[in-house]
Every structure is written in structure tokens, then in C-alpha cells.
Amino acid sequence: MTSPRIALIHALKHSIAPIEAAFAKAWPEARLMNLLDDSLSSDLARDGKLNDAMTERFLALGHYAAATGADAILFTCSAFGPCIEAVARAQAPMPVLKPNEAMIERAVTMGQRIGLLSTFAPTLASMPPEFPPAVQVVPKLAEGALAALDRGDRARHDRLIVEASHDLRDCDVIALAQFSIAATAPLVAEATGRPVVTTPDSAVEKLMKLLAAKA
């Protein structure tokens, strides 16, 4: 299989390092391109909901990525599901992945009660409907963690996530809702004694399968 070109589209700069690390570990041959528009997340936080203008911006990003010769697109921003679905329809049959879909597929095989831990409140509104209705999703916001990360205080960011995770100890599995918090998986697993799934590792694994099937 030739080295595929994967377009990674980000709404938070913190998402870039975790997904690059996941590719380096599992699929170093893939050629990555990063597109970052960090106004997407601040505009969503300001507007409080997704709108047509936001969908148009996503379609433009998808079109640009396809025009560069990408073989697949992975969005790393978890609060924009409907916008990403619009890109998937526009770019079919190219694989276009929402950041969470591979992790959700994995999590539902591990239990019925799934803790969903996030540092970005809109994610906890947009993401639970992506789970199958048969499972119970327990959302939990690690308040203040994202602001700490924005200030460069990773230690406080990680500590707030671990503290928030204590409320999810009665879940079968804990899903970390964002790429930017994937690195805390070992800490959350230790604090809760529960298995933890992350978005980057699951997404890379799914892309490998999809593009291998296409090759």
C-alpha cells in the first residue's frame, strides 16, 4: 500500500500533537497534513450552537483538503458532528471521519454504561446522540481544564481531568471525548480503575482499516 495522504482538520491547536503521536506509533508511513482554524471552537462557544455558516466553513475546509490530494480526512474537533457529516456526504466516497466515531464503536463493545469525559462543554451536548440508544452515556465536564491548558498549565489541566473522572467510577468504560485530553488516559485509568478509550488511537486504527480495504 502506498503512503496515503491524510488531512487532519483541527479546531483546537491542542489536538495536533496527540493525533500526530498516535500516527507515529501506529502508522508512521501515513503522510499527514494539518489544517488548523482555532476560530471554529471560539465561534461555536460564542454562538452556542452550530449554524449554516459553520457548516459552510466545514464544507470549504473539506473541499480544500480534497483538492490537495488527500486520501482521507479526519476531523479532530468533537463538537461539530453535523458539520462533519455534511463534509462526508460532499466528499463521498472518500473516508471522512468524525473524531469520535471509531472510539464510540470501540467503547460500546466494552460495556453498557459509558462515562464521557470532556473539557469543552459543547462536546457534551453534541456527542451523546452519536452513541447507540441502547447504551447509557454519563457526561462529565472537567471544568476549568481547557482554560488551564490554554494558559500552558498542563499539570492543572491533567489534575482537573483526574478529579472529574472520580465521578465516573461506576461506569463500565470511560471515553475521553477530545484529542486534547488523550494523553491523560493512563492517569484516568489509574484514578478510576476503569478501562479508558481515546479518540486518536481508535481513529488511526479505523483509517488504516478503511484505506487498506480501498487499496
Report what the structure shows.
With 215 residues, this protein is an alpha/beta fold. It has helices at 16-26, 39-47, 52-67, 81-91, 101-107, 121-126, 145-150, 154-165, 185-192, 199-214; strands spanning 5-10, 31-36, 72-75, 96-97, 113-118, 136-141, 173-176, 196-198. The strands form two sheets. It has a four-stranded parallel sheet with strand order 2-1-3-4, sandwiched between helices. Helix 4 links the parallel strand 3 (72-75) and strand 4. The longest helix has 16 residues, at 52-67. The chain is globular. The termini are close together. The model has no long low-confidence stretch (mean pLDDT 95).
Number of helical regions: 10
Q: Strand arrangement, largest sheet?
A: 2-1-3-4
Residues in helix, %: 40-55%
Which consecutive residue ranges, at least 5 long each, have pLDDT under 50?
A: none
Coarse structural class: alpha/beta
Q: Given the C-alpha coordinates, what overall shape results?
A: globular
Order of helices and strands: EHEHHEHEHEHEHHEHEH
Strand content: 15-25%
Average pLDDT metric: 95
Alpha carbon gyration radius = 16 Å
Structure summary, number of beta strands: 8
Query: For the terminal residues, how far apart are their CA atoms?
Result: 6 Å
The major sheet is characterized as:
4 strands, parallel
Write the SSE topology.
Layout: E1 5-10, H1 16-26, E2 31-36, H2 39-47, H3 52-67, E3 72-75, H4 81-91, E4 96-97, H5 101-107, E5 113-118, H6 121-126, E6 136-141, H7 145-150, H8 154-165, E7 173-176, H9 185-192, E8 196-198, H10 199-214
Parallel strand pairs: 1-2, 1-3, 3-4, 5-6, 5-7, 7-8
Helix pairs in contact: 1-10, 3-4, 5-10, 8-9
